[in-house]
Every structure is written in C-alpha cells, then in structure tokens.
Design a protein that fits this description.
Two copies of one chain form a homodimer. By secondary structure, chain A is α/β, with parallel strands linked by helices. Chain A has two domains: about 270 residues, Zn peptidases (Aminopeptidase); about 150 residues, 3-Layer(bba) Sandwich (Glucose Oxidase, domain 1), CATH 3.50.30.30. Chain A has twelve helices and 16 strands. In chain A, the strands form three sheets. Chain A has an eight-stranded mixed β-sheet, with helices on both faces. Chain A has a five-stranded mixed β-sheet with strand order 1-10-12-11-13, with helices on both faces. In chain A, strand 5, helix 4 and strand 6 form a beta-alpha-beta unit. In chain A, helix 9 runs antiparallel to helix 11. The longest helix of chain A is centred in the first third of the chain and has 35 residues. Chain A is elongated. At the A-B interface, helix 2, helix 3, strand 3 and helix 6 of A face helix 2, helix 3, strand 3 and helix 6 of B. Chains A, B: Keywords: Aminopeptidase, Carboxypeptidase, Endoplasmic reticulum, Glycoprotein, Golgi apparatus, Hydrolase, Lysosome, Metal-binding, Metalloprotease, Protease, Secreted, Signal, Zinc, Zymogen. Chains A, B: One of its GO terms (molecular function) is metal ion binding. Chains A, B: It is found in: Endoplasmic reticulum; Golgi apparatus; Lysosome; Secreted. Chains A, B: Homodimer. The monomeric form is inactive while the homodimer is active.
Chain lengths: ~475, ~475
C-alpha cells in the first residue's frame, strides 16, 4: 500500500475514533448541562454555608467552623483525597464603628471601616472635612496640604457588565489612606466602591501592616457621599466625627481545603476549580463567595456521579484567604509537586448572576475541545470571547503566574457591586435560575476538558522572537 | 315671550358664558400643566431642604431651622399671610443603638429603634429568641408564654401600587411591642416594614407614652430577618443582644407654617394643600416628605405667577408633626375660624413617583370642574378613580374629620416603601421627571378648583335615610 494512502486511512480511522469519542463527550456534556439546570445542590450548599456558618472572616471562630464544614461537605458528596492545608495568616477584626456629620448639622453616616484599617483613638477623631470628587484631585494636593483634615473622596464607581468599574474606583480604597496620610490628613472616608444607591457601605482591603504609614479609613454610603458633595458645592464647612476600632492577630492561621473527583484514566492530570470560603465580616458572604464554592463543588459532584468518570481528576479547592490574600501561594508551598499536575485552573468569584462569556487559554480557540465547549455553552447564552483567559480570580493568580493555563467563565457583574462586601451580601440576592446556569456551564465545560487530552501549555503560541 | 322659551334662552346664554369660562380655564390649566412639566422649582426646593437642613425630627435643632427655612421660602416665592402656628409636642430622640446575633454565631444585625421606643438598660438586653413568622402567630401565644424572650416577628410586607401592604404589615410595629410585653417578652425585633431586600431597616412610630406598658423594640433588615427565619426553621437556638438608647422631652414645641397665594375674587374661600416638614432622624426625609412640601409649594407658586390669579385662595401648609402626629388638630385649634373657609384640602405624602389616579369628593364626579380635571390630567397618565376621596394624608385627617372635602392625587407607592423611614430616604431616590409630573397634576387640578365655584359639600349625596 502506498505510504500516503495508508496514512490517509489511519488518519481517517483516527478521526473517526476521535469524532466518535467527541460525539459521546458532547452528548454527555449536554446531558450534564441540562441536569445541572434543574439541580438544586448549589443552592443547598449556598444556603447551608451562609445560614449555618454565617460571615467567615479569616481569624474568626466562624472561619474555623467553615473549615470543618468544608471537610464534612466534601465527604458527604463523595470527594476523595480531602486535604486541609493550614498556613500562617495574620488576621484583622473589627470593633465598634461609627461616623457622623456634626456640622452644619447632625446626621449619622452609614459607615464601615475598610478592611485592615487602623483604629482611631478611643474617643474617635473629629475634624474638618476636605472633600475631593476624585482620587486624582486628592493626589494633586501637595504634602502637608491636608494637615488635620478628614479627607473625603466621593468618586463614584461605574456600573459595567465585566466589573471593570471596580478596579477604576477601587484605588481610593486600596491606597487612598496612605496617600492622604502623606498629605497630613488624620482620617479618611471614601464613597463606597459601589454601583448601588444605598447607604449600606462596602468594606474591602486597604493597604496596612508593617511599615505602612496610614490613617483610619472607612467607606460611607452613596447617598451620604452625595450629600457631602452637595454641601461642599455650597462651600458649607463640614465637620465629621469618626470612630473605628480594630485589632490584629499576627499569629493566626488559615486553611485551603481541597477534595477530588478522581479521574478514571489519567488521575494525575488535575483540573483545579473552586471558590473562596472566607468572606468579609459584614453580610454572610453569599455572593462573595459562597456561590463560587457552591457552583464549583456542585459541578464536580455532578461529574463525579457519572457512570463513567472522565479521564482526568477534578479538584475543588475551597480557598481559605481570598479577602486577606495569599491562598494560592500557600497552596503551592504546601503542594510542591502539584504544579506539574495541573492542566487547567479556574475560579468562580463574581457572584451568581449569569455567565455570559468563556475565555480559554491562548492558542486553544481552534482546538476541538473548545469547539465542543462553545457548542454546549451556546444554549446557555455564553459566547466564546477570543481574548485569551487571564487573571482568573485572586486565588488562582499564584498558580497562573507559575504557568498553569486558566479559563474564565465570566459572570455578569452588573448587579454584583450593589452588594459585594456589604451587609447586603446575603442569600436573598442569589437567583436560583442564574446560579443553576453557572453550574451548568462549569459542569459541561470541566467535563469536556477532563475527558480530553488537550494540553493547553503545548498550544500556547510562541512569544514573538526578540529582535 | 313664552316663559319656557325665555328660560331656554337664558339657560343657553348661561351655558355659553360657562363654557367660555371653562374653555379659558381649561386652556390655562393645560398651559400650567405643561409649564410644570419643565419646571425645576420642586426639585430645587427638595434639594435645598434636604441638603441645607438635613433630617428633621420633631424636637431636633434641625426642625427649628426648618421652620425658619419655611418662612424664608414662602417669602422668597411671593406667598402672603405667612403664619407660624406653634403647638406643644413632646419629642423623642434616639441615642446609640446596636443589635447582634450572639448565638449560634456572631453577626451584626442592621437595626434601628422604632420611633418612640423605650430604652434598654444601659448594658443592653441579651436573651433567647422566640421567632414568629406572623403577627397573628405571636398573638396566639398566651400571656406569659414569652417570658424573658426577645420576640422576633418576620412577617414580610407586600409590594403594592397603592401602598396597602404597609397597613397590613405595620401592625407589628404599631402595637407589637405592647402585645409582646403582655406575653412576658423583654424586647422585640420586627422585620423591617419594607418592600426592599435591603439590610437598611425602617423606623416608624410605635405605641408609647404615659400608661403604655411596652418593651424596647427595633426593626431589623430584611436579609437578617430571613436569616433568623432559616435558623429557626432548623431549630437552632438563637440569642440576640439589643441595645437601644432614647430620651423624651415632654416640653417640646412644633410648628405648622402656612403661606397663601391670595385669590383674586373670593380670597376667603381657601384650598389647603401641603406636605409635612418634619421627618424621621434617619436619611434626609427626601421622599417623606420634602417632595410633598416641594410639589405643593411649586404648584401654588406656578399658579401665583399667572397674570390673572384664580378666584380662590390657595394655602400651602407645611405641617410640622406628621411622624409624631397632631398637626391638623393643632392647626384647627390655632385657626378656629379657618374651618368654614376651607373648600378643599389635600396632601402630598407618598414620595415623588408618578401620580396615577385622582379621587374627588363624593358626589362630584359629574361636576364640570372634575370633567375638566380629568381631561387635563389624562395626558399625564392619571385616571379618575370613581371611589370617593378619603384619608387624604395624616396631616389633613383632622380637617377631613371636621367635614372639609378632600382630594387624593394617588402616587405610585410601588417603590416608596423600599426607602420610607430609612437612611436611604435621600435626594438621589427622587426622579426629577416624576416629581415634575406630580407638580403638573397638582398645579392644573388646584387651579381648576380655585378658579371655579364648585362647592363639594353641597354636592355630597345625602346619607341613605334611616329605616
């Protein structure tokens, strides 16, 4: 037989086998997807975690209970290789807090201390307000210009589907107090990094810790920020009184908890998915991120229930310190050999509203597994974004930086920042049908990749040669 | 000339005169309406009152400033016969407040003391929770059955266009603490009387004062109420700690402030409209009821600016104690002769969303002035409800009971109880176009009545004869 012809036949036979395998996979993925749409496991997990454990700040008694809850949940759902990786994580906790306008009239301000803020003196700080409508305006003030003032920044956050408004507005929260301190301010209030019109303010981390020179800082409600802006526009002198209490435990520990759905053929090739178990102390961390835990755990469990499990292992990691940072670094430190086994990683951490797009690793857009995923996800109203996946959640960022390919299943964030990091991040904000759509997407996508041989690292396009 | 024919001619001539007058009135009313739709006075008044005065609780320094603001506003807008009627009104004020779940885990509860609640002991009250899903369920508990407990009632409020859900759910707030006290409870929390899903709780009056046996009581946020309900459903024992501080000033005074747009022909026939100047201490009382003040003041001012003023006088009363009660009784006491001069009364006190229907006094549906009003209001998407007007606002209820006919311009309350009596009742919740629609309706309707001779009392159908 002519060599070329033989190759052709072999190739066709291979394609047939492949396409038969693909067709079977596609059918299974579609069945999983449709089952997930009517499955209530993710809802039940979310309800259980938020109701029975409540808020889960790193260092709180609730966080320790949450760790035990995770182990029990993995066991109950049939996960194996359940691991609890403990790591050192200094913790911060909130005491009494209050803020009020004292002049030109008395008005209580909805206020919450930024995460890891320093305390005010016990009696609080009362001072004149220096108000800036943007972070940039404050940055333009020279060193010392804000001496003795309480700085207020009222820059609003823009509502966007992809959440990009958060990064833009968040700079006031992240480094505002440090920059205000440089300029002589004694305390700082920022307009809540929020898309809502609510008085319920958003907390969230601000730069703090050893060597950081900063001042007490809190977020205030959106209506209060606008009220102060209107008074400032009238040149009415304002005084605010702020009281913040907090404490730090430098010797705290946190935990990453993981469980596996073991692969049937290549168990040492691992797809890592998950959400974060910790939350801020306000609300019950329903959207941030009980639902991420629930979506990925339910997806893995649904796959694990298949009569024939996919080839690769699916590992769910319930990350133990997203809001306080350091989870993935701790994971890699505790699992030195894991890096080479991870073929893909992803995190669900933008609430539970609909997923609207998928991003895959660079170079993989034309791979059959991605084509199959596109086909399975299309009826869920998810399109494939041709921009490569990147920045797949704070908890897998360390893994991503270490070279593991990542996927993004992008959730609609239009509503997320109405509730994020507030007392209003509670179960009632989770929409069951949208939660199920998330599970359906994760389940079918992860199944397809887990039962394939796709090697995203090998598909990565070579970097352009240096000139 | 035959007598009948003469009568016919006279009658026709009269009808011609009338219809010419009516046609002119209709044209003026339409022009006023259309001008009002593009007028920003009501917005400016709302912004001014909420920004420069802030929250206006009876007895607060801000309320005294608000009284002066009212006088100045009437003067600036050309009102005459400006009167300040002072009356005795005991006042209540709020101190520090907090509520937290302490078992099964620590969770801060969004809480606000009910208006006129008594204080807890200085250290607060901590007790086991007895949770009831409805007020009726609690009422079924026998005397003494709740000994030592903190009662929680989680009955939700139903969202309705006409606000009827408020009355139905509000009973827990109004008399719940008294009824819980009878049954031995030591404190009470109610699910916020709210249509929102927010943690921001609603305050509002509860029975208190001399001879009333009651207990400290607060409202908690909707998500917290639902969280406690879920824990109760799991039979998890709960403990709550509640701290409420308040004080009462029995010797306080309040003020009704009024100003007139004097009628051109029959100045002693008076149409009384208005809103209430006071508010709760949370938020800035924007929807409740700065907008009512603004709508009615702007309407009267627009009419006052006409080249030819209507026959009758339009009086705007800025009622001084709606949330604490007693305004109209005080008004009648201070203006003993006013009752006979009042031809119609109305109040705007359900926020600033669109008006959707008009109710007129019994027997007047077929009067030409009501027909004209129906025609002018139809393009504003307001229909005439055939049920007679009644219960036209707490502040005119005393006047209404004394026999003065009232009108209702019914505002869409679908959204009102998301914000009402909360820190979220702020200027940003006011929609300028809907506010202007309100002004347009009041302006055109009040003008038509003010320039007419309609006597609503005379039109009132006779009560059915007693058998």
């Amino acid at each position: 037989m002519h060599m070329f012809r033989r190759l052709l036949i072999a190739s066709a036979a291979f394609a047939l086998v492949c396409s038969a395998a693909h067709a079977q996979d596609l059918k299974t993925a579609e069945a999983l997807r449709d089952k997930a749409l009517r499955d209530y496991l993710a809802w039940d997990i979310t309800e259980d975690l938020t109701t029975n454990i409540g808020p889960r700040l790193v260092g709180s008694p609730a966080m320790a209970k949450a760790k035990d809850w995770s182990v029990a949940k993995f066991k109950a759902l049939g996960f194996t290789n359940i691991k609890v990786d403990e790591f050192a994580k200094p913790s911060w906790s909130r005491g009494e807090e209050s803020a009020e306008l004292v002049a030109p009239y008395a008005m209580k301000l909805g206020a919450v201390g930024l995460g890891r803020t320093v305390s005010t003196p016990a009696g609080g700080i009362e001072a004149e307000v220096a108000l800036f409508k943007t972070f940039a305006d404050m940055m333009a003030a020279p060193d010392g210009a804000l001496k003795g003032k309480i700085v207020v920044i009222t820059q609003p956050m823009v509502r966007t589907q992809n959440g990009a408004g958060y990064g833009a507005a968040g700079v006031s929260r992240r480094i505002g107090p440090v920059e205000a301190a440089k300029r002589g301010a004694v305390a700082m209030l920022i307009r809540s990094i929020s898309t809502s019109d609510s008085t319920v303010p958003h907390t969230g981390g601000t730069a703090s810790g050893e060597g950081v020179v900063t001042i007490p800082a809190a977020a205030i409600g959106v209506p209060e920020a606008e009220q102060l802006e209107r008074l400032a526009a009238r040149k009415v002198p304002m005084r605010v009184k702020l009281k913040l209490e907090s404490s730090v435990n430098p010797n705290n520990v946190a935990w990453n908890i993981s469980g596996d759905i073991k692969g049937s053929e290549k168990p040492d090739e691992v797809i890592v998915i998950g959400g974060h178990l910790d939350s801020w102390d306000v609300g019950t961390g329903a959207l941030d991120d009980a639902t991420g835990i629930a979506i990925t755990t339910a997806a893995a469990k649904l796959i694990g229930d298949l009569p024939k499990r996919p080839k690769r292992t699916i590992r769910v990691v319930m990350w133990g310190s997203e809001e306080s940072g350091g989870s993935s670094e701790a994971y890699l430190a505790a699992n030195k050999d894991a890096l080479s086994t991870m073929v893909l990683a992803g995190e669900s951490d933008t609430g539970a509203d609909r997923i609207y797009s998928l991003q895959v690793p660079a170079g993989s857009l034309d791979h059959p597994v991605v084509k199959a995923a596109a086909s399975v996800l299309a009826p869920l109203k998810i399109y494939v974004d041709r921009t490569p996946a990147a920045g797949a959640g704070a908890d897998v960022s360390g893994i991503e930086r270490a070279g593991v390919p990542v996927i993004n299943l992008n959730q609609d964030a239009s509503r997320y920042f109405d509730y994020h990091h507030t007392m209003d991040d509670t179960l009632d904000k989770v929409r069951p049908a949208e939660l199920a759509q998330n599970v359906a997407a994760w389940t079918s996508l992860v199944y397809l990749v887990a039962d394939s041989d796709v090697d995203f690292r090998a598909l990565k396009p070579a970097a352009p040669a240096a000139k």
